[in-house]
Every structure is written in structure tokens, then in C-alpha cells.
Amino acid sequence: MAHNPHSIVVATGKSFRGVYFKRFLTRCAVFVAAFVVFFAWPQQFDVMTGLNFFRHLSVFHLLWIAWMFDMVMQLIPSAGYWPLGSQKYFGNNYVPITKRINLRHLRQVLTPQHLAKLLNKDTLENVLQYINREKIANHINKARLVDFIKTSTRDAYYIAIVWILMIIGLATLFKFHIIDYKIVMLISIGFYLSDVICVYFWCPFRVFFMHNRCCTTCRIFNWDHLMMFSPFIFIPGIFTWSLALMAIVIFVLWEVTFFVHPERFWDETNAKLTCRNCTDELCGRRLMVEDVEAVKEEIVESIKAS
After folding, report:
1. What is the full per-residue pLDDT of the chain (306 aa) written as tens digits?
2. Can you give the residue ranges of every domain in the chain?
3. Which segments of 51-94 does DSSP mark as H helices, in order?
């Protein structure tokens, strides 16, 4: 592939791509092991119900510890453990996008001929469209931010409705003894595996509902544990309800932060979420980004150098 001199190669730090592949393998092993336990030692599942959590040890105590540790790490800044998609709701991961070029000066100085020398045709069109669209420098377009809040929340709550309906279906099956708590555990472990599949391979929520660029900008990244443990809500027990309660705490904190500080969740207001500042590489490729912000910086630097 020919190198495009006007593209920006993303600088990377620790890639979470490899981390998530290891998590995928680990969760596959957990999923298979759960089925082995289901057929060979079904009594191990008794830890899920009532006070059995304290009455005898089970292999699922190890899983409980791992799950609880994962959720605790989502409640504190833990950049080395969770990717930015999960950690963006913390204030230390917010870098405001305030740098804007002087559009009036750009129009006066840069002629189409000068631009044509700097940029390829596609990027030139992007920059010109940006110039014509932006009206105020050094100002967050509040109307667009409000639109982002409304649109992303609408799409997220569509997912919530679908998920709630599915959980109601599982609860109905459980109530009429079509499935039991052991099957519910296997389903939750299946969700546990599906979560990493959505990150590493393919995410139906992004494709069919959210239409976000990647996991870093995902509106519902920290809904993962609530979705995993929502089937536990209708099974009374220390094991089940402790996990579900912790997941609810994370969900509430995430949602409250989104509505109080939506600028942390949007790549047009948080510079850390842009492709060119990506350090996670969860998308699986070193992006060659024709990023408008990056192009603008190149233009300004070229003006200063000329």
C-alpha cells in the first residue's frame, strides 16, 4: 500500500488489542469449564442461591472474585487495566478540544493553489467543507453537543429496551421452571464471553444501534457488567445479588457522569477520544487517519514554515 504523505500515523502507547485477545482466550476457557462443571459437578452451582455463598467453597467463588475485581477497577481510574472506552468518564481522561485555527486568516492566506500543493483532493474537500461549516473559533458548538447527548442516549436506550425484554423472557422461563439457576449461570458466562467478542471481533450494538466509530467512543461501554449480571436479579442469593448490585452502581455512576459531563464522552470535545490520540488500538489497526484537526495543524505549521 502506497504511503499517503498527508495522512497522520497514530502514535500509540500500550495496545489493548493483545490484552483483549488474552481475555478472549481466558473467557473461552471459562465458558468451556462452566459446561464441564455443569455436567460433572452440578452441585457447584448451588453457591448461587441463598446464603450458600458462605456455606461451602465452589469453583465459582473464583469467578465471583474475578468479576468483582473487574467491577472495582471500573470504579477507579485504572488506565493500565481498562481501556479508555471504559475510563473516559473520569475527569483525568478529559482533554478539551479548544485549539482552533483562525478561519478568517486561513481564508486570506491559503489560496486553493496553496492547498492543492499541501493536500490531496479528498482531504482538500474535507478541509474546505470544515471551513465553510464552522462559524466560531475557540467555542464548543453547544447545539451539536446537545444533539450528541440526545442521539446517543436514544440509541443506547433502544438497546436497553431490547435487553430488558430479553431478560423478562429469561425470567419467565425461570419462573415456569423451563430453565433453572444453573442455566442462568451459563447464560451469564455466555454474556461474559460475548462482551469480549464485541470488543475484539464484531459488535452488533455498534453496527445496528449506536453507529459509533469504535469502542473508545462507545456510549455504553460500562454497561457490560449490568448486561452480564442482569439475569442474576431474579435469583435471590448473596452470590447473584452482590454482583448485580455492584453492576448497578457502575451503571448509575456512568449515566450520571454522562449527563453531568457529556463532553468527556464525545470525540469532538474530548481530544483523548480522537483517532490520532488513540493509545488502545482496539480497532485492530494502526490507523492512517485523515483527521481534519490534524490536517489543520499541518496547514498552520506549513504557513509558519513558509
Report:
1. 333 333 333 333 457 889 999 999 999 999 999 999 999 999 999 999 999 999 999 999 999 999 999 999 999 998 789 999 999 999 999 998 865 545 555 555 555 666 555 555 556 566 666 555 554 433 456 788 999 999 999 999 999 999 999 999 999 999 999 999 999 999 999 999 999 999 999 999 999 999 998 999 999 999 999 999 999 999 999 999 999 999 999 999 999 999 999 999 999 999 999 888 888 888 765 444 444 455 455 555 555 555
2. 8-96+139-288
3. 52-55, 59-75, 84-87
Q: How far apart are CA 181 and CA 185, in angstroms?
A: 6
HSE (side-chain half, CA atoms, 13 Å) at 33: 12
Query: Quick one: which of 23, 12, 77 has its CA closest to 277?
Result: 12
The set of residues, in sequence order, having a beta carbon less than 8 Å from that of 60 and lying 6+ positions away, is 44, 45, 47, 48, 185, 239
pTM over 0.85: no
- In a 13 Å sphere around the CA of 72, the CA atoms on its Cβ side amount to 7
For residue 37, the SS3 value is: helix
Q: What does the alpha-carbon distance between residue 48 and residue 185 come to, in Å, rounded to a whole number?
A: 8
